[in-house]
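Give me C-alpha cells for this 484-residue protein.
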Amino acid sequence: MVYLYTQTPEFFSQICEEIRLFVDIRKIEEIKTDDIGWDGLFVLHYFKTDGNKAISLTKLYEDGIAAGEYEYSCELGQGELETKRNAKRAVKISAYRVMRRKFNKQMPWGSLTGIRPTKLLRDSTVRYGEKEAKRLFVEEFDVSRQKYEFAREINEVQSTLLPDSENDIDVYIGIPFCVTRCAYCSFASNTPDVFPMAEGKYIEALLDELSIAKDIIGESRVRAVYIGGGTPTAISDRNLERVLNVAKELGGVEFTVEAGRPDTISESSLDIIKKSGAARISVNAQSLRDETLERIGRRHTAKEFFEAFKKARQAGLANINVDVIAGLPGETKQDLISTLKSIAELEPENITVHTLAVKRASKFAEQNMDAFPTSTDTQAALSDAAELLSGRGYRAYYMYRQKYMKGSLENVGYAKTGSECLYNIDNMEDVCSVAAFGAGAISKRIFPGRADDIRIERAANVKDLREYIARTDEMAERKRALFE
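Here you go.
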C-alpha cells in the first residue's frame, strides 16, 4: 500500500501523479495524519510560504523506516495565477526528486505529468525567453535534454502552423460507435445496436444539435472540421452521408474523417467521404502482427489493413494517417519497427505513434502487467521509431501525453511537410476554440490574451447515449451560453 499525507490537499492529485511515475499503483490512500505506524510506503508532504517563497518538503518512510526527503523552494511570483502555478511546481518537484532518489530512476519527462509539454515550453519561452525556458525544463523540471530538444523541435515546426487569427474556430463532431471494443480503449464507445435503434436515434439527436452550428460559428473562420469517435465508418452509409453533408456546409481549411478501423472501411463509405470534400482520413493499423490484433480486440487482420489503405488511395484521398501503438503486450521493439517499416513503404502522409496507456476503464487494466514490454523497451522503441521516420521524410509536428502511459512517455504525430493535421495541433496546444457536437464532446472557448496566460472555458456534453438523446436541447444551450 501507498499512503499520502499532505498539508495542501488541493495538490493531492498532483503528488499522486509524481508517485505513480515510480510505483505502478492506482489507489493511493489519503491519510489525515503523518503517523507512520504501520507497513507500507508513506509519503508525507509539508508546505509553507516564507515571504514570496514557496517551500515544499516531501519525506518518505517505508515500513516505518525513513527512506529519504527532499525540500524544494522557489519564488511565488506575482498575481493569483502565477502564485498557484509556482506553488504547484514546488510541490511536484519535491515529490518527484525524493521518489527519484528512492528508486534511483530518472524519468524522461522529469516531474512533468501534464499532457501538453510543448504548450508549456512555448508558453515558458514567451514568458521568460528561450534560455530561461530551457533552464526550467532541464534543471528545474528534470526533463532530459533529449526530450527538451524534441519538444523544442516540434514547437519550431508548429510555429508556421498555428492559427493566425483570434477569430478562428474548429468544429468537432463525435460518432461514439465501434464494431468492437479494443482492450486498450477507455472511450465512451458502443456498438451501433447497443439498444434498439440506438444508431438512428443518436444520429437524429446529433443532427438536431448540429442545427445550431452555424449560429455558434457566426462570423468566425472555420479552420478545421474533424469527425471523430469511436469510428465514424461504423455507422451505416446513409447515416454517415447525412452527417458529412451537414459537416461540409460548415467550411474549413481542413476536413478529417477518423475512419480508423479497417474492417469498417468500404468502397461506398470512401466514396461518401470523398464526395463530402473530406481530404484527410485515418486508416489505423495499431500493429501488423495478427496475433497482437487478436489479443487487443481488433476484428481485422494485417492483410485487411493493407486492403483498406489501398481502397482509400484508389478513392482519391490525398492525406492518409495511420496509427500504431508502442508497448502492446507480447510485442518487442523489433515488432514495432517492422510494423512502421511496412507502413512507411505505403507512404501515408501522416503516421501517429502512440504509447500504450493502460486506463482504468480499459480491459487491459484487469490484466497482468508482466505480459507488457518494460518501460525501457518501450522508450527504446520510440527512439528507434523517431529515427526511422525521420529518415523516411517525416517530421514530428505534435505530441501529447496521457495518464498511466507506459514509461511516462508520449504520443507523437509525424507528417510529411505540408500535410500536418491542423486540428491535432489546435486541440493539443489549446490555441483555437472548438465547437464540439455529440455525446461526450467537449467544447472549449479560448479567450484572447497573452500566449502564456490565456483563459479557457469549457462546456461538456453528457457521455451516456440515452442521456444525450434525451437532453440534446440542453447540450445545444450549453454551447450557446459558452460562445455568446
